Amino acid sequence: PPSPLPLSPAGYFLSFWDYETPKVMVVKNRTLGVIYRSVQFLVITYFIWYVFISQKAYQESETRPESSVYTLMKGTAVHGDDILDTVEYARPSEGGDVISTILRREVTYDQSQGTCAEHFNVANANCTKDSDCVQGEVDFDGHGRRTGRCVQYYNHTFKTCEIQSWCPIEEYAVVREPALEEAINFTVFIRNSIHFPKFKVGNIKDASNKRDMQKYLNKCQYHEEKEPYCPNFRLGYIAHKARENFTELCRTGGVIGVFINWQCNLDIDPSNCKPTYAFRRLDLRKDQANSGYYYRFAKYYRKDGVESRTLIKAYGIRLDVIVHGHAGKFSPIPTIISTVTAMTSVGICTIICDWIMLTFIDKNEVYSDRKFDEVSKWHLQSPHPQKLLFPTEDTAPKTPHQ
Ligand SMILES: *[C@@H]1O[C@H](CO)[C@@H](O)[C@H](O)[C@H]1NC(C)=O
Ligand SMILES: *[C@@H]1O[C@H](CO)[C@@H](O)[C@H](O)[C@H]1NC(C)=O
Ligand SMILES: *[C@@H]1O[C@H](CO)[C@@H](O)[C@H](O)[C@H]1NC(C)=O
Ligand SMILES: *[C@@H]1O[C@H](CO)[C@@H](O)[C@H](O)[C@H]1NC(C)=O
């Protein structure tokens, strides 16, 4: 009989040209049988329920829709004797995928270019005499360029260095306004058009009755269960869904992400994609000192021929609209690939059970002797070829764990 394990390089080369084919061996062992069928059941269930039904592996999919977002803020607020409308509190006025609304303002009136006292918290700003202040020095944490004089800090008793800047400085002259509590009832209209180029479909439905649609869109208010297709969102609802306290947001401002997720199953209805909305605060957590959102802008005017401005530090809620999407449609190629993968994966059961059989159950090595088998011309020439397809003791190769 031939040597079972050729060890020389020539032997390796020769065994490379041997043909290996699996043989079916039936093991009459109840434990192994139960393990084998259970593993098989798990693998098949996984593929049917998870891969095919839940993950829709029979579909060709696209996850990057082209997206365009238009936003519009609505609502009015009473502020003292004034009425604030959307032009005053919404930024930018041309609503894109980022829109913010002012919740609280800190206003510095009547600033103009001139000289005045620097704020006392700026480094080296406290002084007692002119020589304490360096002329022409610019502190980047300060407000302007020093003139070299030491002056009284507005109507207080101590002195600071004088600067050339927009005067008076914000810290001294600022007027803090109360929060716009009405903003909780402002609404933001979010129109999101998407298009999946691979399937040439988008979400733009042509409404059968355009006027009714317009009326509906103007009046409705989004609610997860009651009005899932309405694109008007109350700011209070957004803050609530983002688990933020609106009173607290009015104080610090904040950035909230509006996540729109489109799920389009094009096998069911090619034009009906359902959006789901999620809201999450994006700036640093509220317990950290530097979280929040504010920006400054100014309104300019001329007073006695001098250019003046009203500086406004605006704390607001900023909405970042972030769009995700997934569209899937039946296609033969992914179906074939997934099916083949599923069928191949059933082979895992055999590998697992072989391993269990050879490692744990096969105490007296009966199975491993039977499992590895060599057939050569020498066997086939013998008078009982059928019988010799099963090896005798000396023809079986040694298994590694021996
Ligand atoms: C400057 O003086 C004021 C008033 O005496 C004081 O409150 C402030 O802390 C001083 N600033 C610095 C930077 O020391
Ligand atoms: C400075 O003037 C403002 C307004 O004119 C006043 O409210 C404030 O009490 C004055 N401060 C001092 C220290 O006098
Ligand atoms: C917001 O609207 C509700 C219902 O319309 C009203 O009860 C509530 O007082 C309003 N809140 C503010 C701050 O105006
Ligand atoms: C929101 O915050 C304010 C002030 O921090 C607090 O008075 C109020 O009870 C809070 N509201 C809720 C619903 O937690």
TrEMBL record:
Membrane topology term reads: Multi-pass membrane protein
Q: Where is the signal peptide?
A: none
Report keywords, A-Z: ATP-binding, Cell membrane, Disulfide bond, Glycoprotein, Ion channel, Ion transport, Ligand-gated ion channel, Membrane, Nucleotide-binding, Receptor, Transmembrane, Transmembrane helix, Transport
Q: Which GO terms describe its biological process?
A: calcium ion transmembrane transport; response to ATP
Name any one GO molecular function: ATP binding
Q: Where in the cell is it found?
A: Cell membrane; Membrane
Q: Does the keyword Transport apply?
A: yes
Membrane-crossing ranges are 34-53
Q: Share what the entry says about its subunit structure, partners included.
A: Homotrimer and heterotrimer; functional P2XRs are organized as homomeric and heteromeric trimers. Homotrimer. Forms heterotrimer with P2RX1. Forms heterotrimer with P2RX6. Forms heterotrimer with P2RX3.
Q: Which family does it belong to?
A: Belongs to the P2X receptor family.
Q: What is this protein called?
A: P2X purinoceptor
The protein's organism comes out as: Sparus aurata
Report which gene this protein is encoded by: P2RX2
